[in-house]
Predict the structure of M42 family metallopeptidase.
Amino acid sequence: MSLHERDRLLTFFTMKDKAISLLKQLTEAHSVPGYEDEVRSIFSKELAGAGELSTDKMGGVYCQRGDGPKVLIAGHMDEVGFRVQSISNDGFLKFLPVGGWWTHTLLSQRVEVKTRSGEKIMGVISSRPPHFLPESQRSKVMAMDALFIDIGATSRAEAEGMFGVQVGDPIAPVSAFTPMHKKDYYLAKAFDNRVGMACAIQTSLELLGEELPNTLVSCGTVQEEVGLRGAKAAAAKVKPDVVIVLEGPPADDSPGLPKQDCQGRLGGGVQIRLQDPTAIMNPKLAEFVIKIAKGEGIQHQVTMRSSGGTDAGSFHMANEGVPSIVLGTPARYIHSHNAMIDINDYLEMVKLVKTLVRKLDAETVAGFTSYLE
């Protein structure tokens, strides 16, 4: 093995080890919309000293360094979760979803209620047992309002007193970051969008020491899962010249989906999204990104989506308009307790973002919005 090959492999394994460490920390964090504190803490600790740290008034967090056009690389910190709606007299919790849930995935799943003191109370999502349901109801999906969370309390007084649970407390799924039998496949909650947050952090760290042709702003937004809200505050604060949105989009390579139409396959590389119902990406920026991916030999898959949305939906309309692109690590079974990725897709995303940041100089960025030619 040549010295060059050895150095390349060492760099790859260093990247991969860092990725695994970040993804474990981030996916196991408790950060539902409006309560993104744990992910924000990881971001600020990892990037302490890597640039100027700041926040906006909604809780979005930023690390900025350099000079020149502002290139914003943004993931959202929140995950789909719940909040305590009420506590019954016998100690069971009614809850409201925060973000999009498919009720099929919820029964018998573990969750944690985070109290005002920061303590996490384990519970399980439950319903009236099928043994006590009429035959006509047993094969139907339970409505969300028919579900409750059992934390083991025997009364409302006990739930509020001994357990410290109050109305409004945030609730997150419980699921450990777990390597699968297949090499490089991992199972966890919240890959949507902890892969984006990991990429923003890792890209910033790996570009440290390099002189960039721009101002790099790494960002974690809030409340994406409830309407792309934090991206509005981020755009107002940073006033970016170009935005790279980093995401954990749904894979489409599982049974029941046409293989010939697959644009989000595990192992297919970083996903480059051109359009979804919330945003049409800037065509010149999209062409630039695809050209860079091809030229650098970065494995990628180009995507047009008829459903879903990302923070690009807010970013691209901000101010006078901001050229935006969405890059993603496809994940099976997002918005559930157990999503799955191939970490190599994530590593290709990091490579592409690093390469783009190095090439986004003032002339290139200005060209994305040059319309009178």
Summary: The chain has two domains: 3-79+189-367, 81-173. The domain at 81-173 is CATH 2.40.30.40 (Elongation Factor Tu (Ef-tu); domain 3).
